[in-house]
Structures
1.
Amino acid sequence: MSDEQVTKKFLYVNRKAPYGTIYALESLEVVLIGAAFEQDVSLAFIGDGVYQLTKGQDTKGIGVKNFSPTYRALGEYDIQKIYVEKESLEARGLTLDDLQHLVYEDEDDDWAEKDAIKLVSAKELGEIMEQQDVVLSF
Amino acid sequence: MPLEVNGKTYETDEEGYLANLSDWSEDVAKALAESEGLEMTENHWEVVNFLREYYQEYQIAPAVRVLTKAIGKKLGKDKGNSKYLYELFPYGPAKQACKVAGLPKPTGCV
């Protein structure tokens, strides 16, 4: 990596339920591909998008691949900031306990395992979006 | 181009990746390795089996950077580098090892 390389802040915003449309899977694939470019990547889940992170997904009845285990690999791709909007979660009767436990290892803290999911309010998420160079919405 | 092993035919995609994950066996792996011009050693199997386990857990094949890091953690630092992996799989560890492991071509792999 050269010093001139510019690191940009990328935020991927996920708004849709995991199945029924291709958005969730496409977003995840773009995130994984993009992670190879060593940018500052974060993810946000709002609206029905919060369902993407729920535990215990079972797709047998609809004949598509259950890709929810792949979210657990995000930590190994150095993705450390996964924002979940509090209001969206609450509106759907969900809590953090309904979501998969996603972690990453903090290089600056002797590889300690830390929670990747951060619960934020709509207002806080707005501020986070404000700080990004690139916001991609799925 | 279907793959023939012990008189059985297995469906593959146009690049020779196994179409059905469940068709995989050690004999199929050997045939896939042969199609890549690879002779499977203990070290090759180690990586192939690692990839299969990784796929089981996460439903994806890891990117090379992630693979080297994870291999280093699991199999030791001397193996967790791209030089070692490229020596085993000269045309790309993700690409070739995934093929032998019967996994789909890794996302974002060129």
2.
Amino acid sequence: MQARRFTPLLAFGLLTGLLYKGLSIDPTALPAARLGQPFPPFTQRELISGAELTEQALLPGPALVNVWATWCYSCRVEHPFLLQLAERGVPIFGLNYKDDSSKALDWLAQLGDPYRLNIFDADGLVGLDLGVYGAPETYVIDEKGQIVHRHVGVLDARVFARDFQRWFPTGLTTNRLSLGGEER
Amino acid sequence: MIPELGHIALIIAFCLAIALTFLPMWGAARRNVSAMNVAPTLAVSVTLFVAIAFSLLTTSFLRDDFSVAVVAANSNSLLPPIFKFSAVWGNHEGSLLLWVLILSGWMSAVAFFSRGLPLIMVARVLSVMGFVAVGFLAFSLLTSNPFERLLPSTPLDGNDLNPLLQDPGLIIHPPLLYMGYVGLSVPFAFAIAALLGGRLDASWARWSRPWTNVAWGFLSLGIMLGSWWAYYELGWGGWWFWDPVENASFMPWLMGTALVHSLAVTEKRGVFRSWTVLLAIFAFSLSLLGTFLVRSGVLTSVHAFAADPERGLFILIFLALVVGGSLLLYAMRAPSVASRVFYTAISRESLLMVNNLAFTVATIVVLLGTLFPLVMDAFSLGKYSVGPPYFNAVFVPLMALVMPFMTVGPLSRWREDTVGRWLHELMVPGLAVVLLAALLGIFGDRDFNVWIALAVLLSGWVSLGVLRDFWRRVASGDGRMRWHRVSPSFLGMTAAHLGFAVVVLGAVVVTQLNEERDLRMAVGDVEELGGYRFELLEIGQSQGPNYAADFAVFEVTDAGQRIALLAPEKRRYFASGQVMTEAAIDASFWRDVYIALGEPIGDDAWAVRLQYKPMVRWLWLGGLMIGLGSLITVFDRRYRTQSARSESSAVGAVGFAG
């Protein structure tokens, strides 16, 4: 019997340990570094008007801050649902993350604009302060402008009903909304 | 009553599978012939009772019995009957039952076709497969009972099948994929049986080969269908996403590719024995790992079934038992004496080793990419997702590396060959393909594209080499064709290698020359893409059996000639309220025109995505060639007469198939 014959077994042992650990982790849950803290201060341009924006513009909440970009395929999937939310009066602010402004303007013109305002974060500084991992991400800020919830990935009716509804009780029910985010 | 009968059938199958696991294995250890003799009967009985359970579940679906939880969650009275049927496996519980059904089907096939094999081998193989069946039957009965009832509060109607799954592609994709996935349990069982018996010889490899080829062929077809389905159903026009669940089926395929080739060397030359056994264990282990990843909720994916840690833990324990046990057995029993068969660096053995290394590395690369987010998460290093850039950056060069060898391998000789002979054989195809690539570059009507040139070079090299080899075998000096020299194995290999070249060429061309535009279009608007003219003629609404749809009609013209009328839809399904994009595609050999509707803009306009996808069909055509090529190899006469020849050593024999 040679010791190296046990190599596959050992490697598999490590893998099993990893998978076991993985079972106790929810891959979609993310700790927000800033949960319970105020939205990080910033001064950036508004995407469409070009006016100067600060964190004061997001007040008063509760409101959604949606991180999006034209390079982000999932954002395209998410977009119809955001339009529906906006239609039903949920205030949504966009954080246009590491994007090209002309592409972003085209996007909004073609697909519709669900956002009250859009923070144009070309170099990703606001995203960095916020602890953004990637697009899309959606944050909830409360009346005082504190971050109270964070969702990573596509926001759809199911997620909204489960995690977001309590801040926006304006008559949203799952079956009246399309599960646009289900399309992969 | 029907669901309860199904439940009982499943329990009986479970008990029979336990008997199958222990009785023949015990018989093999004690050389008790009657205990070994029951193995085939038990295997067929397990199949019978699983089939009964499966058909009773199907009955519940077809009869709209919403007192059954799975039916209520995944069907609806308005659902067309064919989708009520496929809804049986459009959910975790039912697809698990399909898994077990296919496993037991493979078991019965082994019992049927292996009557000429030594009894002790058959007994052990069926016992090992019986153990796998026990695990999955227990999984089904304990954590995912498909027959669970919602009594007394039976819903009036069901939640409907996920609209994404209401599609003909999804009727056959899972069964084909499972045929491949689960079929890898056969070479696995043969490997374990050989390890137990201490006989890892050429005959073991010959018995495993046809089963491996069939399983791998089905897996190829299943993956191809999945890619095709994603292409037309998801509405994005993408055909491969490196999604964790896609990877879960791709890893066994990659490992299976190495196994198919390694088995050839072991059968013909008796070398690589330990390595081949290990590959057989790995290939099936990756199938089990895939099942774990898909059903445990460890990784996020659109494909993944509802996350349930309890189920995850169950499969993990089973995975640890099966794979851990096999690897322990391997560590203790693998042949410790290196085989004394001689071969040089310039030989077919060495070339097949290149294949083995490349595909093993490719598997590891995909495995790392798939598990990386989990590793980082487990050590609290942050959340990551590994995207196509990583996979493309490592996977594409690996495949490009393999291709030059694909031409040399089949025509090289076992044991010892010379570079001079290779050069002599391949001079003509080599020059031809370089010339071809250069001519395309010079006279092609597009700008020179280095990636396409490379793809033409590599795919052309493989195709011409393979065809040249084929010709050399068939043609004789006097001009008559010697078709009898084309064995099914040789034909299958030729088809599969050609198919690989076709896939590569299609993948590169569609990636490089794909054109797409997102537009806002109203009735009467005209746009151009890929040399075609698109006019939006009409917007309207229609009604399907269980959905309402907005549709648009486009006329596609090329130089004034109408090519097609395309009508993409946006469907809203009644039961779930989900909205689905139905793309409209005009498909042809050289290009697809693909139109998908986005969202309505205002009252009379829609966001529209137009795509022009050159040679995208080649992907699936090539996949079909690979899969069918692999399947036809089983008709080779060598495998039919395997029982009579099973004792003779094939070492040194010169075979046709690579």
